[in-house]
Amino acid sequence: MDATLFTAIAGTLLGIGFGLTIPLVNHMTVEHSSYARRGQNLAYLSVAIFLGQFLSSFVDVVVGSAATAFLLASGAAFAAAVAATTSGIAEPA
User: Which residues of 3-26 are buried (b: 16+ CB within 10 A; e: fewer)?
Assistant: First the structure.
């Protein structure tokens, strides 16, 4: 497969996935937040999304291999989930 075609297909699929998941996560954040914390939780969500987009551009340079990048990203996601759960950011419905 030509590299340009592969990049176009990958970019299209990435855009579709991003376009479908962001509204869903936004809705889930609103749905699971109390009225008093809704704005704060949406701000945390926005910061997490854009910080992830920004930092992902450095992963290839800093890490080197895909396996190491995956392990680091999954560890960071787990740590963020534990921190959100224990700090009260993620409130159960």
Answer: eeeeeeeeeeeeeeeeeeeeeeee
